[in-house]
Amino acid sequence: MNGRNPHPAAQPGEQQDGRVGRRSVLRGALAAGAVGAAAAASTGSAPAAADSTDAPATASGYPFEGIHQAGVLTPKQRSAAFVSFDVTAADRAGLSDLLRTLTERLRFLTAGGVPEPLGISAPPSDSGVLGPVVPADGLTATLAVGSSLFDERFGLAARKPLRLRPMTSFPDDDLDPAWCQGDLMLQLCADNQDTVAHALRDLAMHTRGAMQVRWRIDGFASPPRPTGTPRNLLGFRDGTANPDTGDARTMDQVVWVVPGLGEPAWAVDGSYLAVRVIRMLVEFWDRVSLNEQERMFGRQKASGAPLDGQSETDAPKYPADPTGDIIPLDSHMRLANPRTAGTDGLRMLRRGYNYDLGTDSNGNLDMGLVFCAFQQDLDRQFVAVQNRLAGEPLVDYISPYGGGYFFVLPGVRGPQDWLGSSLLA
Fold first, then answer.
1. How far apart are the first and last CA of the chain?
2. What is the residue-wise DSSP string for 2-24?
3. How far apart are CA 265 and CA 258, in angstroms?
4. Alpha carbon of 291 to those of 19, 47, 127, 236, 330: distances in Å?
5. Buried b vs exposed e over 199-210: b needs ≥16 C-beta within 10 Å?
6. pLDDT by residue for the chain (425 residues), tens digit each?
7. Beta carbons within 10 angstroms of residue 423's beta carbon
8. Least C-beta-crowded within 10 Å: which of 5, 31, 95, 293?
9. Is omega for the bond preceding 393 within 30 degrees of 0, making it cis?
């Protein structure tokens, strides 16, 4: 596992007029940043099944089988881990065995049950962290592949998704290669953190020699406070303008790869995933006036409403504010989603988790956001939005340093199917 990299940490001073300094001050202070805390991180088709993401949770958790993988449209669970792996399997047969093993273990872990006894003289088949009976606990697992999986090792170059590539470094990023990319990305989410940790240990035990952790970060979903969309660690609601996950037609336009897009046939029913590990300079942010914070986001901090609205779900009235007197033209919400006919295609499904890694070596708080976005077209959606956000005022208070682009595999469609079967067919 990798240790933390030196990334923005030091706390800047204030200007003489009492306002917090802008990016020039910040960048000078960040040059003194040191390595952060590492305690919570390290670097043949079957018959079609019902879509697991449309099925409600049961006493045994969320269904594992379905046209799409769970963990995309599934309501956010409270705890999560995002784990990037390098595949160490020697050849394509080894990769196939790895994916079959992952499928077998995840099928058990997401349903729960009694671990198989191996005999008194053998090591236990389960860590015992969750007791003698493994509960489902709302566990979902979402497996995605990175562009590096399509190199010469496994003969998959011709089958790479059309838009899959290493993550773009945008002008305001501070990316550390040790915290970026990976052959596989596994998103594990559950109602409790020990369930996530248990699942990861189980997978590590059963796949040793076939894959190795490249980097990992744990996250948590805050409860609504007091109601509405949960807040990020800057105190603002995160995900207000998400599309309706219950609308199948919208999901086929925004999230899922469908036929006719030029993608390989095996990729239909998958989705592009952009992961961004973003440090929030909270001690710097907490010295910014409320008015300035709200103008950077374009929303009221308490209610989440647009600055020209009353409630969180109100649509901003941009046509009545063409010069940005109420909602600034460079506010985060207005740049990311200008709500014009020509920019409707920018929508994506955001599923972010807060993280807290304690303090760095300078004693500064090390916390932020694991930003996840699922979409049909990486370039048309996530990349286009990031290009629009370049240079926004908020970049003074955040520092993206890790993550990657991945492609979420189609779901497991029956008892004999397995994750990646269509890719390796």
1. 32
2. PPPPB-S-PPP-B-TTSPBP-HH
3. 9
4. 12, 56, 50, 13, 15
5. bbebbeeebeeb
6. 444 544 444 443 444 344 444 444 444 444 444 333 333 444 433 334 445 555 555 556 899 999 999 999 999 999 999 999 999 999 999 999 999 999 999 999 999 999 998 888 889 999 999 999 999 999 999 999 999 999 999 999 999 999 999 999 999 999 999 999 999 999 999 999 999 999 999 999 999 999 999 999 999 999 999 999 999 999 999 989 899 999 999 999 999 999 999 999 999 999 999 999 999 999 999 999 999 999 999 999 999 999 999 999 999 999 999 999 999 999 999 999 898 877 777 899 999 999 999 999 999 999 999 999 999 999 999 999 999 999 999 999 999 999 999 999 999 999 999 999 999 99
7. 24
8. 31
9. no
Length of the chain: 425
pTM over 0.70: yes
Where is 141: in which H helix or E strand? strand 140-146
Nearest to 393 by CA among 289, 242, 313, 310: 289
User: Cα angle vertex 84, ends 78, 90, to 5°?
Assistant: 140
Tokens of 267: 């990729």
Structure tokens at 92: 């394509």
